[in-house]
Amino acid sequence: MINKSTFRLFDSHSHLQDKRLEPNRSSLIDECMAQGVVGTVINATCPDDWPRIAELAQQYPNLIPSFGVHPWYINTVPDNWRESLIKFLDQIPSAIGEVGIDGWRKEFNPEVQERIFTSQVQIAAERNLPLSIHGLRKWGRLLEILSHGPRPDCGFLLHSYGGPLDMIAPFTKLGAYFSCPGFFLQAGREMKLAIFKDVPSERLLLETDAPDQNLPEELDHYRLHDLSTGSRINHPANISAVYRGVAALRKTPLEQLAEQVEANFRALFANVITRQSRHDDTSKG
């Protein structure tokens, strides 16, 4: 295990609001904190998530809320989703995510996906808020959209980046950070993992995507199961194993990797962290 007194850990993409975590969510968060996790981004998938995420962020100051519409939920969003999103962004300092476009599941209209995605990118650009972006099997089209449209000056996160090596440089020029999930440590994912050898150090972030994207069983030190199905799900404290795996991949000392990831996390989410501090001070006053 990573020693809490030595390293500060940051999970750039999770879904702690997920109902599968509800039975023991408080103990999960406590285990993360005991492991040394001091910053976690909670990403929404749909408007139903937003109130629960806001509540968790109010309860736990180390959680960064991120509100958005995931491309898998475009068929169920209400007509006033954009107005509602802005209300939540006004309510609490936050990022925007999980948003994006998806080429894996075919039941979601690509034009509608892009319309909802670009609308959220525009909001992020206007407010200079970091984005967490899903681009499964759409990395080329995602690069085109971001190249021609407005983008937040603070940058954006490519969640579980699975695109080709030759797109890292153009994405980086646009302000991208690249997040590696523990799932890429699984057997059969070696090519996706290898890409992260070449991500620039100052653009590297790590994530669990908990409760999804399980680590290999031998690295799953914090075992967790969905009580309704019995299936294994990802515990957010497994972020420590992601750090170890990526440090080994890049042949980088663990302490050096942790320091760099912290600097990157604080750079991307600087506006949100600063606003959180002001928000907390105002609330105490």
Provide an overview of this structure:
By secondary structure, this protein is of the alpha/beta class. It has a single domain (9-284), classed as Alpha-Beta Barrel (TIM Barrel). The chain has ten helices and eight strands. The chain has helices at residues 25-35, 50-59, 81-91, 110-127, 139-148, 168-174, 190-194, 239-250, 254-268, 270-284; strands spanning 9-14, 37-43, 63-67, 95-100, 131-134, 156-158, 176-181, 204-207. Strands 1-2-3-4-5-6-7-8 form an eight-stranded parallel beta sheet. Strand 7 (176-181), helix 7 and strand 8 (204-207) form a beta-alpha-beta unit. The chain starts with 8 loop residues before the first strand and ends with a helix.
Number of helices: 10
**What summary fits the major beta sheet?**
8 strands, parallel
The third-level CATH topology is TIM Barrel
The 3D shape can be described as globular
Quaternary structure annotation: single chain
> What CATH architecture would you give?
Alpha-Beta Barrel
Q: Within the largest sheet, what's the order of strands?
A: 1-2-3-4-5-6-7-8
Cα separation of the termini: 39 Å
What is the chain-wise order of helices and strands? EHEHEHEHEHEHEHEHHH
Structural class: alpha/beta
Poorly predicted tracts of residues: none
Mean pLDDT: 94
CATH class: Alpha Beta
Q: How would you summarize the topology of this molecule?
A:
Blueprint: E1 9-14, H1 25-35, E2 37-43, H2 50-59, E3 63-67, H3 81-91, E4 95-100, H4 110-127, E5 131-134, H5 139-148, E6 156-158, H6 168-174, E7 176-181, H7 190-194, E8 204-207, H8 239-250, H9 254-268, H10 270-284
Parallel strand pairs: 1-2, 2-3, 3-4, 4-5, 5-6, 6-7, 7-8
